[in-house]
Amino acid sequence: MRSSPSAVPSDPDAGVPEVDEAAAVAFTQDLVRLRTVNAAGATAVERPAADLVSRLFTAFGWPHEVVAVAPGRPNVVAVVEGGGGPGRTLMFEGHTDVVTEGDAGDWTVDPYGAELRDGRLWGRGAADMKSGVAAMVHGVRALQRAGPFPGRIVVGVLCDEEGLMLGAKAFAASPLAAEVDGVIVCEPEGYEVCTSARGGIRLRLDLRGEMAHGAMPQEGRSALVAGARIVAALAEAEAWALRRYGTHPHAGAVTVTPTVLRAGDPDQLNVIPGRGVLGIDVRTVPGTDHTELTEHLRQAAVDAADTVGVTVEAAVVDDRPAVEIDAAHPLVAALVAGHRQVHGAAPRFGAVPGTTDGTILTRDAGLPTVVYGPGGKWIAHQKDEYVEVREIAEYARVYAAAARHFLNGGARPEGGGT
Ligand SMILES: [Zn+2]
Fold first, then answer.
1. How far is the centre of ligand 1, averaged over its atoms, from the C-alpha of 373 (Å)?
2. Does any domain span residue 418?
3. What is the pLDDT of residues 321-357, one digit of tens each?
4. Does one domain contain both 36 and 152?
5. Cα-to-centroid distance, 271 and ligand 1 (Å)
């Protein structure tokens, strides 16, 4: 149900709504203090963060649902009506899971201390992306407190982004997704408006040769040598992909990276291994034909292994497309206008180096997505992760301003810097 047009919509060119900075920073700290590590086999990963978010939404009076997409793995989704009449539905999206801190002894701060020092908030998830969650929530709250606006805002705090993206997949399949006109994904991108995100293909190659004595190589067919030849051939395949798909202005070129090669036994140095496994991490750019590229890589591997009599079985373990939104799309125009209002200059455009929940929302539900959020672009998953404290409120203000532009149907497209 949309609200009836009873109140006057707020003026899109009015000042940027006032953000409760202290509350946004404190909420980021509260989230960072929860160790929501998405590790293999972990259960109830995001539950404490979802409870915290749910309590805040209740305090704001926001109707919301907590939906477990797997045991202990909840999505929290609020729908905030503008009260200014019918209009578009804008979604802000963030995730509450984090990657492991690794060896906490390598950190110079407590990974879950959420310490404020040198103008920074430190800890696992400070940038990726608990500050983004706090900024979007408090940005929407600021807009709401500034007065009625047309349409409504979906605030999606999802689970499992660092894993199989179960949260995004579940949301994309929900009826609400079909009503969303655009999504701002609040991942850390260092002030860039990311209109594209690279895609990915994970390939597993199982190599089958013939085991033999190291003194009698003529009797064997080595999976290890086949693996080495395939690795060499992948460089050529990468060059082929560059010629075939070119270079994208923001996303760069296709990369083909061997990540795993296993064959043989370190305790059996006199045995030629008959079996092996090779893993390949392929990153793609908008315009890449995944089916064609996968087949090209498979054939290159088969040909290389065949030179030493080894066969290859290829399996696609994961396949996520590269996604892109037109820079002239109203969602991008609104975000650029919001950034300009807060920062006094147009933002740079960029590309997400990996995939985000936005990739799934575009792939599975056809939603236009753009990625823009607090924190450095390259700091995710590193030790001593931090976000600049001032960025949290800055981004909240841009989100509020961008939402106002998008929901009022304003903001003409303009080019960002490059
Ligand atoms: Zn993230």
1. 10
2. no
3. 999 999 999 999 999 999 999 999 999 999 999 999 9
4. yes
5. 44
